[in-house]
Amino acid sequence: MMTTALAAAGAGATGLFKPSAAEAASDGNGQRSHGQGPFPAEGMALYSSHGPLELMKFQRRALGPKDVAIKLQFCGVCHSDIHHGREHWRKETFPLITGHELAGVVVAVGSSVSKFKVGSRVGVGCMVNSCRHCGPCESGMEQYCENGTVLTYGSKDRDGTMTQGGYSTFNVVDEDFVIGIPDAIDLAHAGPMMCAGITVYSPLRRWSIGPGKKVGVVGLGGLGHMATKIAAAMGAEVTVLTTSRNKAEDAKRFGAKTVIVNQDGADLSKHKRSLDFILDTVPYQHDLDRLVPLLKLDATLCLVGVGKVTEPNQLGPFSLLGARNSFASSAIGGVRETQELVGFCALHDIRPEITKIPREKIDDAWTKVVQKEARYRFVIDMTRT
Ligand code: NAP
Ligand code: ZN
User: Fold this and answer.
1) Structure pTM?
2) Which ligand is nearest the CA of 125, by number?
3) Chain CA centroid to CA 343, Å
4) Lower CB density within 10 Å: C or N end of the chain?
């Protein structure tokens, strides 16, 4: 039934994203095609893990046969950008332009591109390449590539250069890692689907969330608010656990039936053994042992939030034993599944709640995200440069 419904929404249908003749003649901003590159670009770069973001001029590579050149219009601000930029996870190579929730319009295509044309509305998420031939790649899970996924930023690209992300005006990406965006979805809304949306959609599907299931969403931020909307649209009963009392009304508006303020040692005992699945999106060290008792027998706690490597989460030796629970994780989602998620959002009228900002305000946005003040995704408007 899901397949039919998604087909009705046009998800994954090649040809859906082909532009009209008029669109094909321009890049969506009334500009003519940009040639084959290399392409001049500007981005907001970090020059160290503690510095501010500063304007950097650089070039995107010339088009390979399978590449599309994308004039970027929007890029969402993900907490992962902060983790990378502030080196919470690993040493980075600077200068570094973060951003993996890209949305824009195709302005040039390589000679063998078949899925997109000049004028196509597209998105790019966290990956721009993978080996294509290992088991996970062949089954559409490029994010688990056995030979290393090339991330949208901070990865060594196939030409040996470091990838630079979406806080920029332009990108060149292999069409196999480009997602088509249907007309029904604004490009500003499409950006956050490319990471926040797919990162929660993929585990909700993997753990067969649907009618009759009770799902806990921990942390109401970029990922958490999308998880709430998507799980509710899948037919599940959603409980949001938040540390921010003032988000309770929003949680209900997004589709939660129950909101638990998980703050100052709040008593969670009356919710014991109530949930079939918990999706935990919290980005820093927190008490998992408080969450596990909320799971029913055999249920799973899936942690998609990724904290600092120097401050790992702990799970007590008896936590999982009492109700044979599982602890799991999940990384973004594959290209096909991301296209499916876009179709699901179109079909169910799901959009992220966004605040558009000019690129000069990214530092300020990062501060607000860390302080849990995003409502619920900042999106950089690249057309205001
Ligand atoms: P976000 O917008 O900042 O949302 C995180 C939410 O978690 C906050 O709004 C807050 O919700 C809660 N929170 C924040 N700090 C907390 C703390 N110290 N203790 C307890 N709760 C806290 O972040 P996001 O962009 O959604 O990303 C969330 C995490 O997912 C990040 O670690 C990110 O790197 C990771 N991520 C993972 C994947 C993957 O593939 N697994 C993909 C994308 C992102 P309340 O105010 O409701 O408590
Ligand atoms: Zn992200």
Assistant:
1) 0.93
2) 2
3) 15
4) N
